[in-house]
Amino acid sequence: MTFTAPNSKAIPLAHLESNLDPLKVANGVYITIHGHYYQPPRENPYLDTIERQPSAYPFHDWNERILHECYRPNAFARIINDRGEVINIVNNFEYLSFNIGPTLMSWLQMYDIEVYQKIIEADQKSCQRLNGHGNAIAQVYNHIILPLANQRDKTTQIRWGKADFKRRFGRDPEGMWLAETAVDYATIETLIDEGIKFTILAPSQAERCRPLVTKRDPEPEWLEVGGSQIDPTRPYRCFLKDGRSIDIFFYDGPISRDMGFNDVLSDTDHLVGRVAQAIKGDHRPSQLISAATDGETFGHHKAGTEKCLAYAFTHDFPKRGWVVTNYAHYLSICPPTWEVELKPVTAWSCSHGVERWQDDCGCGGGGDWHQKWRKPLRNALNWLRDQLIKVYKEKGSILLRDPWLTRDEYIQVILDRSPESVTEFLMRHQKYSLSDAEKIDALRLLEMQRHTLLMYTSCGWFFDELSRPEGTQILRYAARALELAGDIAGIHLESEFVLRLKLALSNVEIFGHGAQVYQHLVLPAQISFKQVAAHYAISSLFTTYQPLQRVYCYDAEKLDYQKQQIGSLTLAVGQVGLTSEITWESHNYIFAVLHMGGWDFHCCIQPFNGRLRYTQIKEQLFTSLKQASAAKMIIEMSQLFGNQSFDLQHLFAEERHRIMQQVTNHTKQRLDQLYTQVYRDNYGILVAFQRDELPVPQELQVAAEIAIAYRCLKTITALEQTTDDPQTIGTHLVELSAIAQEANHLRCNLRIPEAKQTLERLILQLLWQVLHDDDPTYLETKIELMSQTIAVANELHLGVSLAKAQELYYNCLFEDIVPFCFGEKAAQNHYSYCRWTPSQILPLLGLGQKLDIDVSAWL
Questions:
Q1: 0.85 exceeded by pTM
Q2: Where are the alpha helices (DSSP H) in 682-697?
Q3: For 791-806, what is each residue's pLDDT tens digit?
Q4: Closest among 406, 499, 386 to 149, alpha carbons compared
Q5: Which of 326, 303, 300 minimizes the C-alpha distance to 313?
Q6: Fewer beta carbons under 10 A from the terminal one: N or C of the chain?
Q7: How many CA within 13 A on the CB side of residue 237?
Q8: Could you give the CA distance from residue 740 to residue 693 in angstroms, rounded to a whole number?
Q9: pLDDT score of 724 more than 80
Q10: For 35, which DSSP code?
Q11: Is the pLDDT of residue 494 over 80?
């Protein structure tokens, strides 16, 4: 996608004064595009991790998919020329106003620290550019509809959102994004109480506005703007009855809608022209043109549109004299001169107030489907919340000095679950010196409250069916909160809660109502300590566990372990201590797991009841193993451990899939060899069919594709293991090129995603060696190998991405190659500090061409 300068011209303002600094004095046209970046929390409440989501294929889950379609592309947005070469890489977050949900930021920090750091860095750079006002604003913690929350939950959500923001961005937030921009005056009051200076709303949420009261005009006339007629080019002040206030920006509704649903982002001509239409040609000194939309629009919903933003931010907007800013900066140079009154209870995505999250209002409907389930679901959760408040107050007041303040500050533990952090937190809030068991109860109480808040995540009501993943997820949080309440207080609330869910009618016939959704989609996701122990036991047959190892959110201590194999039978017996990182609860189990080959596993678990008993069980089982009878082993294990057993299906999905792959590897290898033989025996026939342009028999085409893919994967694996030997690398690359020619000649589609990932890693590794290896001896050879690797990747048609390699090269180009070889440092005789000789610069620049980087200016 190429973006060239549009023909539209900036519209001058009558009072534009070129000698004023627009960053310090409000003067001219200002542009703010706000991205609301958010994904619903998807973690399994028991594992604190996201499990595989098949609908996100080829990615592991939807967070990962949107990371690669949106978050990473915006952190490294390309501007390309008409030859498709990269001429600039822009961090869009340096120019976008944005909020990123705290739960999403936590995930980003764990799964792509590079993108996470680019976002933090972008906020810092925007602070430097805009007089200390950063682009990032906070968000209510887990996206709950604040007008429907009780006062305590409103406060906690805002405080958690603020604390999370400060921990990440190193400053207090000036603004806060409200989930779905849902607002009422109680929410406004809480924002003010918590020191939030401004928020952003839809134009439809304003009721009336007028100029601020002054001595000259003590009673200005109110203007009715309830039909979205409010002027969005200025900030407004919203007052409470007690005189306190918060400032509000209303985004430009038509431009924001066009970004989400039309082609305004397809080209900078469209974007600049659309913005220009919104500029008012009157005599005001300055005006703000602001749009707000889901940040995922830029790349995920609309592929490639991050390029349009990058070009507009860095080229087209500045060319017209428009200042790219954020709300906080604009507020600092142009405080409100108007005030606004809001409609009582509103949200941008529901024309009925906030009914979308509590009633069958029709918003989000899908054809004939109803949303009659919404109100019963909301009522059931409200009932549960109120019951859990009683548990929390009763038990929490025994252990904690101020239970509600403790909950508000629990965000510090959520952000840092290290033993030191948790210990310091408990010491600060405990009523007296707590015993180990009481510490566990205190953490259970706080986790119960965390899951109570999570079960109100707005996505659960947003769509048209309760049994969707979003509705199921909030019910999983409710189930975890129920379980914790039972552990703490011995109270059983689940049966009454499920009874209330029966009133939530599903559109899906097989479920019927919420109770069935709970039964079939929620309860199977619950995980006990015994299941964690079974997971550890079965996976230990294929994984060498360390003495202390993390298993999801559990610390697993290997206290004893012994494994023996006789014939097709493998038996492992052991003792493991499990401790939850979240609640500090711990259990000690013994286990026995029998693998009978293939998919057949039999695992038994029981609590550790003394070393003597454990030793007797171990000796008895290994004695029985010598008889090599699977049936006798299973009977004996049942007699020693009881009738409850676990098999491969009880493993957590990730580990189950890994073991399934390992178990089938032997079978797959035999099939690969078989297909290879079929391919070799019939190669001449295949070529004849291709030569005469006849349809190749499916059996032969499949054999060819599997055989060539098998050979390709073996060669790529060997190549990855020999990246230090240029000669061996060259040999493997020649082999891969031959494989590619063979596959292309026979029109084979090589479906080997693991080869794609391996080649991407290999290209990046080779490029790193080229750019950062201090030994210049083989530099030109490595550059040639790098070029060959890229060429082979293209020949194989595996869809290999060069994005990270481009970013690495581009960074080095402007930090090292250009300054030391062409820039001021070279002119100042600093060339001696450059790691490359003059003869090596040309091959280095040629490598840039291979990576589709525009290096023509230096060539």
A1: yes
A2: 683-691
A3: 999 999 999 999 999 9
A4: 386
A5: 326
A6: C
A7: 17
A8: 20
A9: no
A10: E
A11: yes
